[in-house]
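User: Last request for today: this protein with coenzyme A, please.
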Amino acid sequence: MSFQNLLVEIEGAIGVVTINRPDKLNALNRRTLEELSSLLSDLQADENIKGILLTGSGEKAFVAGADLKEIKDLNGESAIRFARFGQELFDRIENFPKPVIALVNGFALGGGCELAMACHIRIASENARFGQPEINLGIIPGYGGTQRLARLIGKGRALEILLTGDMIDARRALEIGLVNRVVPAEKLMDQGKALLGKIIDKGAIAVQSIFQAVNQGLNQTLDQGLHLEAFLFGRVCATKDKDEGISAFFEKRKPQFKGH
Ligand code: COA
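Assistant: Here's the final one, the structure of the complex with coenzyme A:
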């Protein structure tokens, strides 16, 4: 698939993906979501790619929401299909086997906030603004906002953001745990690369096991989650990466993980 609304740069083992509709503040239309879906499949299959940075084009927005031109024409039935399409894509991001870091470089509203929340880690520039403004349009989030926001920052804080539709700034987003870090805009890409670089140096099976344990475990009881953790602990303990990690510790050297 050739991409109209995405820019893709491969830098070593990192795929830098930029949503590129700056004149529409990178609003997510169907084409953009389809392109993202196709690109994710490519990046998942590519063994040379170990992680993804996801950002928005221009200095103003990460993503200013789902495309309101498309939402305008939805009816009750088509709206369900619309929401499920986006939700399934964002689920794929959340469960992607390689780390995905959102670099939020401006407005992350509606579907933009939902997209950032589906990523594993979020780094915001100081000028970033977050919100779920759907309530101001007489609707509610449809790409996971009611679910992921409450899970990420707690029910009370999520309800305030969802019910008022107000934006919060990067400092507040950091305070409530919506983002992991806030950095000056000019440092966003470098910080993203440094953090992702650190993670992709680890053993890939251990990284994947952490995604599975946390994502699946959060939807289970504590007891089920602990059983899952024990199962995954067994899996990683059977890898060569485990032998390498423990040997490197005793030999006082940096481990060289191979992902098996
Ligand atoms: N869907 C479609 N187009 C959008 C959009 C969206 N979610 N968000 C912004 N755009 C478009 C605008 O229509 C405008 O297009 P135009 O130049 O053809 O008129 C362009 O992007 C620039 O936006 P504009 O509103 O002029 O910029 P601004 O700096 O004055 O305001 C925002 C920025 C983010 C506050 C404002 O664009 C906004 O409120 N966007 C919608 C946010 C939203 O409700 N998202 C949830 C959708 S469910």
